[in-house]
Structures are given as structure tokens and as C-alpha cells.
């Protein structure tokens, strides 16, 4: 892999570090750890590309990107649900994350289907929370990961380098939108609690 492939992994690392820290400080631990999984996948990509150990680290990068990304998404959607007032026991979230990781490892079709369902769930939760003028924008940005996976990642139409960079830069922007969505959802929850 050319060294320039690192250039689109670095924004994901930066967004994940910033976002995980911000969410942790806001006591949104599930979202914080979920975002960290995306940073870990990008960091694995950076190490894989910069060390030249592409073949050796390819399985690890694939595992962390696919299974880790799915687990991260379970945690992020669980955080959104929690902020919406749904009581989710931690054991249920962790068991769900485990099943999602196994589904992702079972095959691309199962993993992709589960991932798309989680994206739809997160988008609906963001779109239907009370208050906030930005909720349609946040829901759309949350859902934008679906076309990114389906049409940008390994696109037959795009040059492989353009496909790689576009896919990863969209993930970085998506992480920023997720972090904004969690903050907006938390603000809406706080406003409802204060008015009750």
C-alpha cells in the first residue's frame, strides 16, 4: 500500500481521540469506548501502512475494522438510547456487542446487515429525540455511513486510492457528527429533565 494511504487514517485517529475524550468527560462512557474502536482501527491501519507489514497486519486491520467497528457502533447506539431515557443494562449491551462481533466475523453479508440495522436504529433515535433544530441533520449524518460502506468503500467506479481516501475521510466526518449527535441528545435529555 502506498504511504499516502495513511493521510486519510490520521483524521480518524484525531477525531476518535478528541471525541472519546470529550464524551468521557461528559460521562458518556459507552459512546466514548465506541468511538475508541474506530480510532483503534485507524491506528492499526497507520501501523500497517507505515511499517510495511501490510500482509502481516492485514488480518488484524480487517478484524479491528469490521468487528471492532460493529462493536463500536453497538456502544454508540446504546449511548444514544441511554441518553433518550432507555434503561439498558450493561450486560445486555456487552452481550449484544459480542453477538454483533460474531455476526461480522461470520460473513460480510451478516455483518453488513447488522451494521446497517444499527445505523438505521441510531438515525431513528437521533431523528426522534425531543428538541433541537439540528436533529434531522444529525440523523442524516449518522445514516451517511450506510452509503459510504455500500458505494464508496472498494467502489468499482472510483480509483482505489480515491475510494480509500473518500471512505476514510467520510468516517472521520461521521465520527465528528456522532459526537455532536451525542452532545445534542444529552442536551435534549437534560432540558426534558429540567422541565419535568
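Sequence proposed for the structure above (196 residues):
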Amino acid at each position: 500500500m502506498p504511504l499516502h494511504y495513511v493521510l486519510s487514517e490520521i483524521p480518524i485517529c484525531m477525531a476518535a481521540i478528541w471525541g472519546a475524550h470529550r464524551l468521557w468527560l461528559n460521562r458518556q462512557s459507552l459512546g466514548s469506548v465506541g468511538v475508541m474502536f474506530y480510532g483503534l482501527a485507524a491506528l492499526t491501519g497507520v501501523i500497517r501502512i507505515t511499517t510495511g507489514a501490510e500482509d502481516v497486519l492485514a488480518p488484524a486491520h480487517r478484524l479491528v475494522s469490521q468487528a471492532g467497528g460493529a462493536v463500536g457502533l453497538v456502544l454508540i447506539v446504546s449511548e444514544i438510547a441511554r441518553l433518550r431515557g432507555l434503561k439498558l443494562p450493561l450486560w445486555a449491551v456487552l452481550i449484544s456487542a459480542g453477538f454483533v462481533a460474531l455476526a461480522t466475523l461470520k460473513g460480510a453479508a451478516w455483518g453488513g446487515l447488522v451494521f446497517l440495522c444499527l445505523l438505521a436504529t441510531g438515525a431513528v433515535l437521533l431523528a426522534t429525540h425531543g428538541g433541537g433544530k439540528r436533529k434531522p441533520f444529525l440523523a442524516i449524518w449518522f445514516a451517511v455511513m450506510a452509503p459510504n460502506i455500500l458505494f464508496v468503500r472498494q467502489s468499482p467506479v472510483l480509483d482505489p486510492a480515491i475510494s480509500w481516501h473518500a471512505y476514510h475521510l467520510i468516517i472521520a466526518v461521521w465520527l465528528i457528527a456522532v459526537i455532536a449527535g451525542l452532545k445534542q441528545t444529552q442536551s435534549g435529555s437534560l432540558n426534558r429533565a429540567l422541565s419535568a
